[in-house]
Amino acid sequence: MPREDGRWRNPLRDRRDKRLPRIAGPSSLIIFGVTGDLARKKLMPAVYDLANRGLLPPSFALVGFGRRDWTDEDFANVVHDAVRDHSRTGFREDVWERLAEGFRFVQGSFDDDASFDRLRDSLAALDAERGTDGNHAFYLSIPPNAFPTVCEQLRRSGLATADGDSWRRVVIEKPFGHDLASARKLNAVVNSVFPESSVFRIDHYLGKETVQNILALRFANQLFDPLWSSHYVDHVQITMAEDIGLGGRAGYYDGIGAARDVIQNHLLQLMALVAMEEPISFEPKQLQAEKIKVLAATRNILPIEANAARGQYGPGWQGSERVAGLKEEAGFSADSTTETFAAIALEVDSRRWAGVPFYLRTGKRLGRRVTEIALVFKRAPHLPFDKTMTEELSQNALVIRVQPDEGITLRFGSKVPASSMEVRDVNMDFSYGSAFTEASPEAYERLILDVLLGEPSLFPVNEEVELSWEILDPVLNSWAANGTPDTYESGTWGPKSADEMMARTGRSWRRP
Ligand code: BG6
């Protein structure tokens, strides 16, 4: 593009270089639910890590809202302990001191008008003293049944709307409802106070580096794309296995179960990223549009009874430790029917994926902690080897190792040295630890920064949440109508019914 002085100007130069660090503008983060686990283990440490990386503005403020009779100093002590115990980056006194100047605590309860009036006054004072400029993000780390009251209070006190160029945003944590009907109600309540563009729904899996890398793997490379369809893929397995039990979490988990806890959100989001078409750009709207298409085209494989499995952990061994079953954990009753393992089989009704099952499974107290996505390829149509030579050759697989030991594995067959032509599975590995020197930020660092920057790409929209419930509801209804979960021994890979579900089509679960 020629300039008036006749010299060439590169239009790309005028755009901001996307490699530069993104630093939040003047703003505050207000946390509701400061005494909860999430606030202590994830949110407070992430705020500190962002400050330590120089990504928060000098005027940043962190405000706690809660019933405790705390002073600002008490609140600072709580944040200090949380940061000491859980932050990713090392503790630096100078960073801490600068950050702590912006800490405030507002004592109050959700149903009390005066508490929210005090919050409004505190935020106005912060705007004046520290220059937070009227930019405030409200983080609801509270049970969903409190959302309507808090949203209504934010509206009543005038905190939900901003003047001029300032902004107000609300951040909500799952569960986004219990089923489709309740999710719709919840969305209606939130949207009656905040426009959809100001609502940031957290699915922390989208904040993980390895999950964002699915888009790089698929759309920056030519190598994998031709294979990425029913022509070559036999099926896809998405596994989120945890070795921990549910001691201490009965209040949240009992009556919710594994499917609502993580399939409705994390696992369906992973599936959408694996199955979606290339977006026109990485603009939030384009990305969401592609994920929405996948979710709208996703169906349960029928009959559901034979294509889903659920279980509840009984006593067993986790390594060398003897562990209790769910029914013996504090807060769970002896007749609890909450599932701690869930597996479902889905299909995506599209030209690319017709006939390819997507198997999603998750569980607590399984053999080990691992989250991975495996594309398992069809067998070669013909093997010109003696049968005995390929007994240890299974199907080729591309495995995205989400965590731990983050990376990607390609499994294929190779000749065993010194044999005449015996072929056995081998792995080719990419591992973050050896390929990069930079450590990956925690998911919450990325997501909190994106909220403050008003960057919505990594936050599922209303429609995604509702479509996910549409997929899960038939499974939940079938379970509610039919019996109780099977029991599996802690430390194993789930109930027998999950293996049987795969065996019916001649497949089996991976043992990561
Ligand atoms: C949460 C679930 O969303 O994810 C928990 O509610 C689960 O039950 C947790 O333990 C796992 O997160 P991560 O990042 O450790 O895999």
Strand content: 15-25%
How many domain modules?
Answer: 2
Q: Work out the number of β strands.
A: 17
> From the alpha-carbon coordinates, what is the Rg to the nearest angstrom?
25 Å
Q: Give the names of the bound compounds.
A: 6-O-phosphono-beta-D-glucopyranose
Structural class of the secondary structure composition? alpha/beta
CATH class designation of the largest domain? Alpha Beta
Using the coordinates shown, work out and report the CATH topology of the largest domain: Dihydrodipicolinate Reductase, domain 2
Helix content: 25-40%
Largest sheet report: 11 strands, mixed
CATH superfamily of the largest domain: Dihydrodipicolinate Reductase, domain 2
Task: Please state the second-level CATH architecture of the largest domain.
Answer: 2-Layer Sandwich
Q: Total helix count?
A: 15
The overall pLDDT, averaged over residues, is: 94
The outline comes out as globular
Report how far apart the termini are. 54 Å
Residue windows where pLDDT falls under 50 for at least 5 positions:
none
Polypeptide structure, described:
This protein is α/β, with parallel strands linked by helices. It folds into two domains: 11-173, 3-Layer(aba) Sandwich (Rossmann fold), CATH 3.40.50; 206-503, Dihydrodipicolinate Reductase, domain 2 (2-Layer Sandwich), CATH 3.30.360.10. The chain is built from 15 helices and 17 strands. The chain has helices at residues 11-14, 37-52, 72-86, 93-100, 113-130, 147-156, 180-193, 209-219, 250-253, 257-275, 284-296, 432-435, 443-453, 462-481, 496-503; strands at 28-32, 61-66, 103-107, 136-140, 168-173, 199-202, 233-241, 298-300, 308-318, 321-323, 341-348, 357-363, 370-377, 397-403, 407-415, 423-431, 486-490. Strands 7, 8, 9, 10, 11, 12, 13, 14, 15, 16 and 17 form an eleven-stranded mixed beta sheet that branches. It has a six-stranded parallel beta sheet with strand order 3-2-1-4-5-6, sandwiched between helices. Helix 2 crosses helix 13, helix 7 runs antiparallel to helix 14 and helix 10 packs across helix 14. The termini are far apart. The mean pLDDT is 94. Bound molecules: 6-O-phosphono-beta-D-glucopyranose. 6-O-phosphono-beta-D-glucopyranose is lined by residues 242, 261-262, 371.
